[in-house]
Amino acid sequence: MAIRDIRIIGDPVLRTPCEWITDIDERVKSLVEDLLEGVDMEGRAGLAANQIGVGLRAFSWNIEGDIGYVLNPRLVEVSEDEYQDGDEGCLSVPGLWFPTERAWYARVEGIDLDGKPVVVEGEELMARCLQHETDHLEGMVYIDRLDRATRKRALKAIRESEF
Questions:
Q1: To bridge 17 with a disulfide, which of 9, 11, 61, 139 should be the other Cys (CB 3.0-4.6 Å)?
Q2: 136 annotated as ligand-binding
Q3: What does the pLDDT look like over 99-123, one tens digit per residue?
Q4: Could you give all domains of the chain from N- to C-terminal order, each with its CATH number?
């Protein structure tokens, strides 16, 4: 399979909430293959379906060599008293990194290709990934979470970028 092009900020698919997957058919199986192949590259922590132009609720991750996927993910728990505030980037906003506050811990529930329940949880980078990717599926990009001053800098950098 060919690796699909990443949609860049400004593409409406990134701002459109993704549809729930109701039938696990060949299209969904192919999507999962594409997501797993697309995330299995250096520097890629996660990849949401809409980032490759598919408006379905699915994403893949690659955190410290642990690669996986989840269909119909829902962010069901985040730590409410522990946060992280590190630089965050996005394949759809290439080359730009900004400090983004996220919960230290996150838990996502969804299903796999057999329709069986899947729970994905983690701290630090995995938690950041889970929150970032579920945001994508809701039509959000990480710059939406930046504080006002940082968001202003980010939008200026995006306007001045060559992507």
A1: 139
A2: yes
A3: 999 999 999 999 999 999 999 999 9
A4: 12-160 (3.90.45.10)
